[in-house]
Amino acid sequence: AAKPIQIKVVLLGEAAVGKSSLVLRFVNDEFQDNKEPTIGAAFLTQKVRLDDSVLKLDIWDTAGQERFHSLAPMYYRNAQAAVVVYDITRASSLDRAKSWIKELQRQANPNIVIALVGNKLDLAGDNDDSTSAAVDDSAGAEDTTVDADDAAETEGRSRQIASATASAYAEEAGLLFLETSAKTGQGVVETFTEIAKKLDLN
Ligand code: GTP
Ligand code: MG
Description:
Layout: E1 5-13, H1 19-28, E2 41-50, E3 53-62, H2 72-76, E4 81-87, H3 91-107, E5 113-119, H4 138-141, H5 148-152, H6 163-173, E6 176-179, H7 188-198
Parallel strand pairs: 1-3, 1-4, 4-5, 5-6
Antiparallel strand pairs: 2-3
């Protein structure tokens, strides 16, 4: 078989949105309820099969806490792809994702493939039952600062960011867009497969 094509992928996003959990699901098909915050960054690899080719993804899972922000360029430099993650139950995290995307568009490889990923889809609490009561998420909407312990607290949370809002932004900015749950695995393999498909491998 041909030698796998090596691809550098970086994960970016606010603390506790679930970057490490997405990678853990993708690489080991596991989930941890109380995953500890990443310090600096973590490195993992996983292969993706695509028609005739195999891609080996070298995945840099960065730390979302602001004190690690200055390290990020080391990890997105030369990256062919970026997964910018927000938490669909936390409005501030989409703003943070947008600022990461601006930074990537200014500073990263101009051909970088970027996927905007809304994680924690299992907490959405939305379904097709139009009779279900509207959820009052006003308390959550006031959160502006996030500390890791707070953000990891998922009890009682529900969707704050509509799919349509995020997907309209992603389309405008030329990004892939997916919603995922690291907890159930929904959308996780698809995220990395969609990235692989969009990469120019010639
Ligand atoms: P930093 O490393 O600090 O930047 O955080 P992170 O983005 O890597 O988040 P992490 O994967 O550590 O997840 C934070 C918390 O959210 C953990 O308690 C996870 O168990 C939880 N979590 C992650 N993904 C999901 C998900 O899809 N659904 C639910 N319900 N919880 C999740
Ligand atoms: Mg992490």
